[in-house]
Design brief:
It is a single chain. By secondary structure, the protein is mostly beta strands. Helix content is 0%, strand content 62%. The protein has no helices and eleven strands. The model has no long low-confidence stretch (mean pLDDT 96).
Length: 120
């Protein structure tokens, strides 16, 4: 089995910062991509930031404020969020596209989500 566990969400004032972490564990052969998505109430889930093949891409709404990084040795991805705005309020989900031990196909796995609320 494979599990993704996020941490680091919470309540923060506008202009503040938060750092999310996501650790992938279990029967993993390789992780080809990791990223962060978010879903606000009444909206579709959207990509926030993702890394794959050494490249990183960000949603336009977070460019210059959010930074994602990976620690491949720890199967961990981070999301540093600065200058947070109320519109960043959402449940943030970690995603990993990986190959399981003994397998050949890629599968997408998701974390359980962590709430980020930006409010004064």
């Amino acid at each position: 089995q494979v599990q993704l566990v996020e941490s680091g969400g919470g309540l923060v004032q506008p202009g503040g910062s938060l750092r999310l972490s996501c650790v992938a564990s279990g029967s993993i052969s390789s992780i080809n991509a990791m990223g962060w998505y978010r879903q606000a109430p009444g909206k579709q889930r959207e990509l926030v930031a993702g890394t794959s093949g050494g490249r990183t891409n960000y949603a336009d709404s977070v460019k210059g404020r959010f930074t994602t990084s990976r620690d491949n040795a720890k199967n961990t991805v981070y999301l540093q969020m600065n200058s947070l705005k109320p519109e960043d309020t959402a449940v943030y989900y970690c995603n990993a596209r990986l190959i399981r031990l003994g397998g050949l196909r890629e599968y997408d796995y998701w974390g359980q989500g962590t709430q980020v609320t930006v409010s004064s």
